[in-house]
Amino acid sequence: MVHFVGAGSGAPDLITLRGARLLEEADVILYAGSLVNPALLDRAKPTCSCHNTAAMTLEEVLAVIRAAEAQGKQTVRLHTGDPSLYGAVREQFDALNQLGIPYDVCPGVSAFCGAVCAACGSGAGITYLHGGDYDAISRTITNTLANASGIVCDGAKGSCAAKIATSVDAAILAHEMSLDGNTFGAGEGLVKENVEKTIASIGRMAADGMRETDSEILRIMIDQGSGC
User: Fold this and answer.
1) Alpha-carbon torsion angle 17, 110, 162, 10, nearest 10
2) For residues 183, 161, 110 and 171, what is the CA-based torsion angle, rounded to 10 degrees?
3) Euclidean distance between CA atoms 175 and 173, whole angstroms
4) DSSP string for 72-101
């Protein structure tokens, strides 16, 4: 069995609980060494065989998987972020299907765009550096989320740069609104009564609401479904 596991967005504690468990149980780990935080390998058991695939071809990766399958071992293919959006998984899926090797996918960080979260941090920092107090910083965060929280990541690295620029613009606008004492009010989209509840509503959307969106983005990217 091969488990495709999303490593999350960088820090080793951003991997999902399921992903962490699969790493700890794996007999073989194939990881994208140029992208995955190596600290995640600390979860591997002492007998686990770890392979950096940065310099490996697809055929070499498949050879390791076939050998593990022949010995009844569990393999984890560790990709950065969410494996279906930031990893070259389709060609691996096709090859495993041809070989009759079962596999599944353990998602990583949702397609909910990380640039939105970074924009909130940037906006809050800008407001703080301009002497803003807690209320001003809260307004900046709320304004940023009200504006930019609809941005999703589709795995297109070129447009990701544009989305980051858009998010930074949103953060600056949010900061300027906050300095003028303006903020979006409760009931405007996902905005709630205070900043903590607003953040919680965005977290709910990212954790729960994005599940079907993640799947639909993937289907669109691999041209499945009507109209694609």
Assistant:
1) 10
2) -10
3) 5
4) T--EEEEESBSHHHHS--HHHHHHHHHHT-
83 neighbors 62 (Cβ within 8 angstroms): no
Q: Rounded mean pLDDT of the chain?
A: 86
- Phi-psi sector, 84: left (phi>0), alpha (psi -120 to 50), beta: alpha
Per residue in 167-203, pLDDT (tens digit) is 889 999 999 999 999 999 999 888 999 999 998 888 7
Rounded to an integer, what distance in angstroms lies between the CA atom of residue 210 and that of residue 114?
Answer: 13
Q: What is the distance between the alpha carbons of residues 45 and 226, in angstroms, rounded to a whole number?
A: 44
- Do residues 79 and 87 touch, judged by C-beta distance below 8 A? yes
Buried b (16+ CB within 10 A) or exposed e, 9-38: beebebbbeebbebbeebbbbbbbbebbbe
Cβ count within 10 A of residue 49? 15
The one-letter amino acid at 153: C
- How far is Cα 80 from Cα 76, in angstroms, rounded to an integer? 13
Closest CA to 157 of 102, 189, 117, 114: 114
**Token output for 219:** 């289907």
